Amino acid sequence: LKMSWLWFYLPLHVLMAACVCHSIKAPTTSSQQSFKTDLFNFYHSLILADGKETTIHLLKDIPKRYYFVLEESRVLAPFSITVTPCDVPIEWSILVYKASPSFPGKATQGDHDTQEVSKSEKAPSMVSTIFNYKGNSVETYMGMSSHSALYLLEFLSTERDTHITVYLTTDTTSGHLYPELPTDPRIDVLGIGHTTVTLTWKHSPSVLQHRDSIQYCLLVNEKHNYKSLCAAETAIRSSGMKPPPTLALSLSPYLLEPQQVMILSNSELSIINKLSSGEVRQVCMGTKNTYTVPNLSPSTQYYFDVFIVNLLTNASAAYTGTFARTLEEPEPKVTELKDGKVIHVVLDGKKQKFYSLQYQARHKKIQFTFQLCRGHIRVHITKNGKTVASENLSGLRYFSLKGKLLDTYLVQLRSTEESNSSVKVLASPHFHKPLFPLLPESLKIKSFSKLRTCRSVTIAWLGTQEESKYCVYKRRIEEDQIWRELQSADRCSGPESRHKSEKVLCKYFYDLNLQRAVTTETIKGLDAGTFYLFDVYLFGPSGIPVRYHSKAVKTRKKC
Description:
Organism: Menura novaehollandiae (superb lyrebird)
Main location: secreted
Protein name: Protein NDNF
Radius of gyration: 40 Å
Signal peptide: 1-17
GO molecular function, one term: heparin binding
């Protein structure tokens, strides 16, 4: 069975079909109009290529027609047509025009009146609609033909402009353009977690035959399933983003848009599209037929589609999509705060989860104290379910609150950066003696450049009106380590974490006049042209230290 595209055959076929359709009588006015319509349809149709996937763009409410011709064959020969809608549902149909072998195209011998064929005896119609469909699924029509025939395909979109792909082949013995699906093309959900879903599917026969040129690709989104790969790409494109050229290709970073993230790990390529309707993930995992989707949001419904893709032709076939809802996030563990007891909390910046502390008031006035040790933290405090404070922490922060006996306070802490953060938390009645020392206006250490020598430096810091103990520590540091050390310093750690050789001195001082509450110290015995990191620790009545901001100073190289 082979194709014939000779244009001079077309009028004969149309003429024969039109004559057979209406009668062997001379055409009436109505039949002449129908005959002209047939001619118009064919002359305004395009040839559909054999053995090649054709992309067709459809305008709303405007039909588009393609045709192909099959020549006569001694045996029944198969052909197939596969139509893939890439967006909205469409309507399409197949009409066949056949030349009747028993109708030569003219009346038989005899008198015209006696040879006139009645309506009940007229030749059977040789024009027929052999297939029609409306929807957005991928549909394949398989046909057999042994007669010379002309086929007309008509496509119509009634919703909006769209595009489709059409694949016609008359050679069904040399392989398939599209990868084969298994007899059971469903995706099974093996397991569901709070942030993961594990999927599996049966292997495609194409994987077993062409392992090097076939791979599976998974699409994850929060809207709905897609019945074809081109439908998924169209949805991403319509959201204002540029999809990859094809899901299965080896993508490079320069193909990505700013809203796209590419992740390559364990030979798996993942593309994450940040859309207004949620993330759309694309993952290609080779020929593995089991996959655990990570980093999902709890209590969220996701839709999963698996496509088997031919890397040589970019043709694909879709498994039957599935969906699953991740488990609800478990209630965070709540730690009880007790009067006068300090709790040290370390927060995981990557998980971005709240750490919850609960306190039941035994007094009308209470005070929460937060000492930020490392990183950046957001605190949110509620009383009986109503917010009373919410802000980013900095240094040492006090919240004095009034309420009733047995009021329930919930303190929630969250790291605002990806690295780990830590904080010390204290809850106590307002009138209790504070465990943390009274702080000066600033915790900065100042150095005097003019007082630097090759062997000494002079530093100064602010004090308070309360007599307190101050201890000074020093250590050598390389210049390229200063920034990292200042960023990662634990401001809650005390001198117990320091080596004894780093201690310089301890002293007590205060001044009732805050303008004069300043102390200086000259540290001697240093090496010339060397960086030193200086720390000052302030101790309150309870012995809990507060660390000033570290100061790096370099001694003079020449004196």
